[in-house]
Amino acid sequence: MVARHDQTTDPVLLQSLLQARRGTAFFARKLNELPDAELDGGSLLPGWTRRHVVAHVGYNARAIARLIEWAATGVETPMYSSPEARNHEIEFGGTLSPIALRHLFDHSAVHLNVEWRDLPADAWHHKVKTAQGRTVPAEETVWMRTREVWLHAIDLDNGATFKDIPAPVLERLLGDITGAWHTRGTDAGLLVKVTGTDLVFGDTNAADPTVVTGPLPAVAQWAAGRGSHGVTATGPGAAGGVLTAPKWI
Questions:
Q1: Strand partners, 242
Q2: DSSP state for residue 100 in the 8-state scheme
Q3: pLDDT band at 1 (very low <50, low <70, confident <90, very high)
Q4: Domain 11-160 CATH (choose: 3.40.640.10, 1.10.3210.10, 1.20.120.450, 3.30.160.150)
Q5: Which residues pair with 135 in a beta bridge?
Q6: Closest CA to 123 of 109, 140, 139, 142
Q7: CA of 65: how far to CAs of 14, 62, 73, 74, in Å?
């Protein structure tokens, strides 16, 4: 008989799984609050309706589940056959009926959760490859999904804000974003400080940096390219206290 609890006993991984599951539940709540007719409305992502967001989150769960199957079996199973296939999938998903779209989200989330639950403890360290070509241990898929569900719950534009996201998720998200900037070399002279904490991200070696400050939710929102309310920019790169964040994804 298949076990009904997570096979891993790693406390850090279990906590990460909990954050992902809470994010999934939060996305589900914001989606279920929307009447069917409002699924046609715009999201916070340019060019995407709410339908596109729901389809993306649903198919993302299926894609991550394929990585977990890879970790479990050793048989290479890519997230997507190609970037074009991924984009086509989202466009197709956006044309589904409201009930089919909701079922896509629900069923894919359950499927992924079962794959996570039943993955043997040692298989979490098995290597898989993301859609961007990064080779990572299977445990990284939990963060990949956590980021998706919490952020896209906000993108549904149904009242969710960055204040709803747990602080540990926001801190790791900021680390991801500023790390991507550093890799691309777009963070030169840019320093991000979270007020009320010791958290500092960006170019800490800059002699005369442009400094962006604000509470954790506001700074994360700005860095993710979803608004600058609540943040202040000072220094040579700022214009009137406003600064556009470098591209993240």
A1: 239
A2: H
A3: very low
A4: 1.20.120.450
A5: 129
A6: 139
A7: 17, 5, 12, 14
